[in-house]
Amino acid sequence: MKKKDAEVRRMTEGERIIPTMGINNCGGKCVIRVHMKDGKILRLSTETPEEAGDAVPLTACARGLQYHKTFLGEDRLLYPMRRTGKRGEGKFRRISWEEAVDTIASEWIRIRDAYGPGSRYVPYATGVSGLLSGREFAKRLLSLDGGYLGYYNSYSSACIGPVTELMYGTRQCGNPPESWADSRLIILWAHNPLETKFDAETMHALRRAKARGVPIISVDPRRNETAAALDAEWIPVRPATDSALLDAMAYVILERGLEDRAFLDRCCLGFDGAHLPAGVPESESVEAYLTGRKDGVPKTPEWASQITGVPPETIESLAVRYATAKPAALIQGYGAQRHAYGEQSARGGILLSCMTGNVGVWGGWACGAADCTRHPWPRFPSLPNPYGRKIPSFLWTDAVDRGAELTALDGVKGAERLDGGIKMILNIAGNCLINQHGNVNRTAEILRDEHKCEFIVVSDLFMTATAKFADILLPGVSMFECDNISLPWKYGEFVGFSNACVPPLGESRQEYDWLCEVADRLGLRESFSEWLSWDGWLRRQYAELRGREPELPEYDELRRTGLYRYKKGPRRVALEAECRDPAAHPFPTPSGRIELYAPEVAETRYKSFFPPIPRYVEPPEGPQDALARRWPLQLIGWHTGRRCHSVHDNNPNLVKLDPQRLWIHPQDAAARSIGEGDEVLVCNDRGRVRIPAHVTDRVMRGVVALSQGAWYRPEKDGTDAGGCINTLTSLAVTPYSRGNTQHTILVEVRPAVAEGCADVV
């Protein structure tokens, strides 16, 4: 023992510990302690539950403890480069920073003068999600220079956020997760927080509820890691059919008289004919749809079973258990709303919460986005965009390909239509130009055409699939090379500080630095930077926050400790006053009630059918689509514990957590002569993926699953060997939110040595 103690002392002698916190788009926001010696990182450690005391521990998972192995590896980009080959080939030559900035400034001016401000675009990207980011500073500079084409919504929650606002008038409808300990039943619907990491609180609260004996059910096509960890009851459902299952549950509750009629009458618009807006016929009510008075088809468990694959008796039991467990929490993840008609699954959950009176109740859950922001976060120093026009975040490929054709019907905001296409892209700390966007092959085809988008700047850490499409490729800095302020993503009451630990590698630079130089060439340096350094901006924004939150420590104290937890405030129940007395405290909707029937929807024209009430709409590429005769399997993705989106895929130490494999049910595998570990081709008319098979009964029959975020690696024949699911996804969007539909995919799977996918491009 003495020898071991001496060794520990020797290793830690002269060691310095620097507190920091991740700034990529992971909701865990774990505490990271960087152990330094002689200017080098020895290891990372994290907060233990004992250290957290009564607070929710911000303990790092394997990803967090591998940050240094991911971000400081030998594959880092170290110098600015100019493309020499065709876009996408990944051929570059090293250039100076002066040449890089000169090129960016000259192209910036040329494109602005030739095509106008709306030709410039900064896409959705989440590689840096701290308070300050190069992406937002790029938008600030563009705003000073006439504006740019903006975007709204996100790849994550494009459907669930807008429809929560549509129905409740706000996204702030979530109780603190600690309320689940007082639930009588918890249903996790397409929710896998153990791997997705919405925050630190969710799994902590679920484990606490489980320990108190609260039954937990998981509704998902896979028995995901959260369900396994909590030993939750698993109800598999076919992808893109969630709203049919929710409809049938609502039918059972109604037919059995288990609905909270007093709540519906007091708080909701449109459940029955007596509570519809004036002039709207009774047949448009939710009740008329559920009972079949509208279309002659009662939404019975038998009806839903044919669509969802869930046995009728399971649907009946689930509905009764949910309606009679008072209070109950039906907690929606983001998986079900990333489908064709993804809005409807989110709306269906809200309908069930209202029918059972679980809104505005401690231990209940209002469904939807369920945001619960208890402290105002500091704001980025953005400026108004003079151009004013926006598109849905997922439609940028359409704006490159056929921008002048896009109208308000496609989701354009700020004008009736766009006046042209995107000609310049500033892609900063993101992999959504290729890897994380839909239909990789079509997207790559669009970007290769230099007559469409004429200039692409990418700033990143690695040669990602997106980076290969840059005209100018710049080396950014990681969380270990710059300071930032880190904030909770979903739930949490703290402010964290991400401390720089090492100098920038090679010639890497913060985007703010070279944007200042571009601003100088545009004559906008003073108005852009206000002569503040990066640290100056952090201090200014934090001071603004302290003005509103005086309990926060001084900036330098936060920097020293790396973390401040807010003092515990009073218990908050979302929408409690509105539910108790909507006449005195109306919901922030046009009607002042929860809009189960949405007059806004009824009065708006859409490109494809979208109903004014929550109800199932048969999706394209769903299980009932005629295309299923050719592509009979439904493919879904999930967020694996090995990666945060596409971050960490280049870290070989994390591969063992979840090797990239295709999950396939034993019966589907046997029908195709596929065994465990066999190499298979997953294909449809958009692409092919070559991947090993994992035969498991943790995915339902008729469904295959491939975790999202793997880096796209096309072979000479176009087959992706990296396991990138977006080789197979589409560019289709949902009708209301224009959200991405990347979980609604039909495919076929064949042994790689067999014929069957050879005709796929």
Find the CATH superfamily of the largest domain.
Dimethylsulfoxide Reductase, domain 2
Q: Major sheet: size, sense and barrel closure?
A: 6 strands, mixed
Model regions low in confidence, pLDDT < 50 over at least 5 residues: none
The assigned structural class equals alpha/beta
Q: What proportion strand?
A: 5-15%
Rg, Å, rounded: 26 Å
Q: Biggest sheet, strands in spatial order?
A: 5-4-16-15-14-6
Task: Give the total of beta strands.
Answer: 26
Quaternary state of the chains: single chain
Average per-residue pLDDT, rounded, comes to 96
Shape verdict: globular
Total discrete domains: 3
Helical content (DSSP H or I, runs of 4+): 25-40%
CATH topology title of the largest domain: Dimethylsulfoxide Reductase, domain 2
* CATH class bucket of the largest domain: Alpha Beta
Your description of this structure?
This protein is α/β, with parallel strands linked by helices and 761 residues long. It has 3 domains: 81-155 and 378-479 and 508-529, Rossmann fold, CATH 3.40.50; 172-373 and 574-602, 3-Layer(aba) Sandwich (Dimethylsulfoxide Reductase, domain 2); 626-751, Barwin-like endoglucanases (Beta Barrel). Helix content is 28%, strand content 15%. It is built from 24 helices and 26 strands. The strands form 7 sheets. A 6-stranded mixed sheet has the order 5-4-16-15-14-6. Strands 21-25-22-24-23-26 form a 6-stranded mixed β-barrel. Helix 9 links the parallel strand 9 (216-219) and strand 10. The longest helix has 19 residues, at 97-115. The protein is globular and about 70 Å long. The N and C termini lie far apart (64 Å). The mean pLDDT is 96.
